[in-house]
């Protein structure tokens, strides 16, 4: 039985990422009538690509147990990045600089040559960007001043740890109540 196979590839109207279809008609020494419908149909799907981003790398060690490598896509924040912004001030649309803000006396900067302006930028960034509680630097002031690169926590602002007492909360509630009363009076008139 002498058999040869002719392979025809048909272009599909399906999207390019769908499986393609190949039809192979059999050629025998005894040809079948064309109406017999003896056609082998094969479906070919797109092969799985070996994408480097999908396959985690394996450690190149002599161990028989292959250990995967942990990939970190985030970068640590640099210490004292706020110092780059020193001397810069925000401006209004007309180009006039805003006045500097005064921080409460309980907020004390931590680290070498940290000014109040840098402290303000550090606290504002921590409040705006951080998803964890803002507590300040918890290490002792002497250790933070002695070796800030080791003892500073880059996820916290450059301020000593702040403790908020019940008196502070009461004072703030009183200020809010006074501001609300002033706002109500302004809206009525």
Automatic annotation (TrEMBL):
Residues 95-187 form the Methyl-CpG binding protein 2/3 C-terminal domain. GO terms for biological process: DNA methylation-dependent constitutive heterochromatin formation; negative regulation of transcription by RNA polymerase II. GO terms for molecular function: methyl-CpG binding. Residues 1-38 are annotated as: Disordered. GO terms for cellular component: nucleus. Pfam families: MBD_C (PF14048), MBDa (PF16564). Residues 40-76 form the Methyl-CpG-binding domain. This is Methyl-CpG-binding domain protein 3.
């Amino acid at each position: 039985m002498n058999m040869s196979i002719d392979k025809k590839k048909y272009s599909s109207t399906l999207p390019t990422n769908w499986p393609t279809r190949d039809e192979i008609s059999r050629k025998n020494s005894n040809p079948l009538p064309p109406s017999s419908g003896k056609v082998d149909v094969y479906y070919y799907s797109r092969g799985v690509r070996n994408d480097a981003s999908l396959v985690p790398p394996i450690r190149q060690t002599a161990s028989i147990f292959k250990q995967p490598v942990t990939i970190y896509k985030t970068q640590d924040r640099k210490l004292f990045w706020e110092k780059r912004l020193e001397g810069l001030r925000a401006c209004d649309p007309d180009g006039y600089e805003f006045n500097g803000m005064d921080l409460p006396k309980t907020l004390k900067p931590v680290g070498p040559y940290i000014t109040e302006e840098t402290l303000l930028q550090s606290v504002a960034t921590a409040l705006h960007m951080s998803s964890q509680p803002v507590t300040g630097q918890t290490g002792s002031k002497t250790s933070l001043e002695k070796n800030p690169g080791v003892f500073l926590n880059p996820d916290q602002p450059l301020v000593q740890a702040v403790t908020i007492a019940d008196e502070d909360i009461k004072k703030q509630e009183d200020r809010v109540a006074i501001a609300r009363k002033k706002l109500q009076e302004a809206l009525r008139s």
